[in-house]
Structures are given as C-alpha cells and as structure tokens.
C-alpha cells in the first residue's frame, strides 16, 4: 500500500500556486520552483539567452548566503540542486535526502530573486513561519 497522499493545491492572491504531495515511502524531499517565463518571453532580446542567464544568477548566492555556502548546505544533506530554462518556463529544483524541521531547502528557495510570494529575500517559505538564517 502506498503512503502517498493526494496532492493539495493552494493558490495565493499574488499568483503563486503551491502544490504539495506527501509520500513518506522514501526519506527524500523534492522542492521545485516553477516560474512561468522562458525564452519566448524575452521580447526584443529573443534568442539572447537572457532567461538562461537569470536562471544562473540563483547559483551565485545572495546577500545572506554565498553560492558555495548554498551548495554546501545542499550537499551536506545528500542532495543536489539545479535549474533549467525552456521556451515557456524556468524551473529551479532541489532534492534532499535529509530534510530536518529547519527546512534549509525551503530557505534556499526563499532566496530566489524575483519571488512574488511575499516571503522575499531572507524570508521563510510561505506560510511556515520559518525564518532562514
């Protein structure tokens, strides 16, 4: 019998949609942050790779974490993170083998530039009351 639950969806007033599907059959957490824009949205700069460049900026770090520190936090938990850009979306993802209550994975995503969910730089994941630091 599977321990997976039906997905839960919550749509916030600012357009952020959160999907959660809990499955405790494996001790792994996968977080994905999908942005509804890609290379087709580059307008006058179509084909310049601007969307791809912005994707790479996430791995440079923030005012609170260097890129190396973020990578170390992920690797310490047996995880990996990456991103990709397509024609109509940019997706950031992280997979962790160990996800303690302190939610470092959610903290990493709370530092993604351009978030519109209200948490912003240095904030916690939406609705969990957690502050990264």
Describe this structure in words.
The chain is of the alpha+beta class and 133 residues long. It is built from three helices and five strands; from the N terminus they run E-E-E-H-H-E-E-H. It has helices at 50-57, 67-76, 104-110, and strands at residues 8-11, 17-20, 29-35, 80-85, 90-96. The strands form two sheets. A three-stranded antiparallel sheet has the order 3-5-4, covered by helices on one side. The longest helix has 10 residues, at 67-76. The chain is globular, with a radius of gyration of 15 Å. The N and C termini lie far apart (39 Å).
Which terms summarize this structure?
133 residues, alpha+beta, 5 strands
Lay out the secondary structure.
Blueprint: E1 8-11, E2 17-20, E3 29-35, H1 50-57, H2 67-76, E4 80-85, E5 90-96, H3 104-110
Antiparallel strand pairs: 1-2, 3-5, 4-5
Q: What kind of sheet is the major sheet? A: 3 strands, antiparallel
Q: Helix fraction?
A: 10-25%
Q: State the oligomer.
A: single chain
* Integer-rounded radius of gyration: 15 Å
Q: Between the first and last Cα atoms, what is the distance in angstroms? A: 39 Å
Strand fraction? 15-25%
How many helical stretches?
Answer: 3
Strand order of the largest sheet: 3-5-4
Shape: globular
Average of pLDDT: 75
Low-confidence stretches: 111-133
